[in-house]
Write a structure and sequence with these properties.
Strands 1-3-2 form a 3-stranded mixed β-sheet, with no helix packed on it. 23% of the residues are buried. Helix content is 45%, strand content 3%. The termini are far apart. A hairpin with a 6-residue loop joins strand 2 and strand 3. The chain is mainly α and 296 residues long. InterPro entries: Ferritin-like, Ferritin-like_SF, Mn_catalase, Mn_catalase_C, Mn_catalase_dom. This is Mn-containing catalase.
Length: 296
């Protein structure tokens, strides 16, 4: 039945070339960041797929999410393939030479030993410091506008990291693959901006748009508060004029005042074994300014 299940088909060919000019085990460690780091390809693949699988009632966005999520899985394969090839010959010829050459030995000391010990010259679902990939990196809230903004951030951070990696190697084979990934991140940033604009035209720009305005404190809803030294922030778009949601007017509060009470907490009961207070201390604290009958 159409739409009843999803099947992934694997093709033997990579989406794009992933072959370095020569092995480089130290660079393989660096490349792990855009594979298994917070903004790496594993993260965006899982993030987009779960957003798509959890998408309720909108086939256009669901299909788009599954399209891009599946493509990111292809990028995972490209990076793992590249990392494995960068590790070629690392534990044998290179290390034997390193034992005789102090300079080369120092360079080899920068590689990830787990690439030998744990993964047998293969990539790992981990970042460049060896920290395992964590599903907590992913965001799939069910609110598409909130999620798409998170996706735009992920693609922005990911592209930034890939560009930095591009600049840190002269290997033309690696650069060729990275140039492809950079271009796809350009498309994906544009894609999320287009999707965000699409949703913003249908609802408020503030997430969630379904919460009643009368239930929030309107007197502070559009006030920019100066909580640091200096007033340069007063010149920003956020400090004056019509708000971005067209529902209010930005105001600049140069001297925000506390609006709450001075907090007071009653001593804990004896069985909690907090720090004991003397009778005088207890009396003084009960009589402190701002204390009320509720103890809050």
């Amino acid at each position: 039945m159409k739409g009843a299940f999803i099947i992934f088909y694997h093709k033997k060919e990579l989406q794009y070339h992933a072959k370095p000019d020569k092995p480089d085990p130290v660079y393989a460690k660096k490349l792990q960041e855009v594979l298994g780091g917070q903004f790496g390809e594993i993260t965006v693949a899982m993030q987009y797929l779960f957003q798509g699988w959890n998408c309720r009632g909108n086939e256009k966005y669901r299909d788009m999410l599954l399209d891009i999520g599946t493509e990111e899985m292809a990028h995972v394969e490209m990076l793992t393939t590249m990392i494995a090839q960068l590790l070629d010959s690392a534990p044998v010829e290179t290390q034997e030479t390193a034992a005789e050459d102090p300079v080369l030995k120092a360079v080899m000391g920068g590689m990830n030993p787990q690439h030998i010990i744990v993964s047998g010259l293969g990539a790992q679902p981990a970042d460049s410091a060896g920290y395992p990939w964590n599903s907590k990196y992913t965001i799939a809230s069910g609110n598409l506008l909130a999620d798409f903004r998170a996706n735009l951030n992920a693609e922005s951070q990911g592209r930034l990291q890939v560009v930095r990696l591009y600049e840190s190697t002269t290997d033309q084979g690696v650069r060729d693959m990275l140039s492809f990934l950079i271009a796809r991140d350009t498309m994906h940033q544009n894609q999320w901006m287009a999707a965000i604009e699409d949703l913003e035209q249908q609802q408020s720009v503030v997430v969630p748009s379904t919460f009643p305005k009368e239930k929030e404190k309107q007197e502070v809803a559009y006030s920019f508060m100066n909580f640091s030294e200096g007033t340069e922030s007063q010149t920003g778009r956020w400090a004056g004029g019509t708000s971005m949601d067209q529902q209010g007017t930005f105001e600049y509060d140069g001297n925000p005042q506390p609006m709450g009470q001075v907090p007071f907490l009653h001593p804990a009961p004896p069985y909690i074994h907090d720090t004991p207070l003397s009778t005088d201390q207890h009396v003084n604290e009960k009589n402190s300014p701002g204390e009320n009958n509720t103890g809050l």
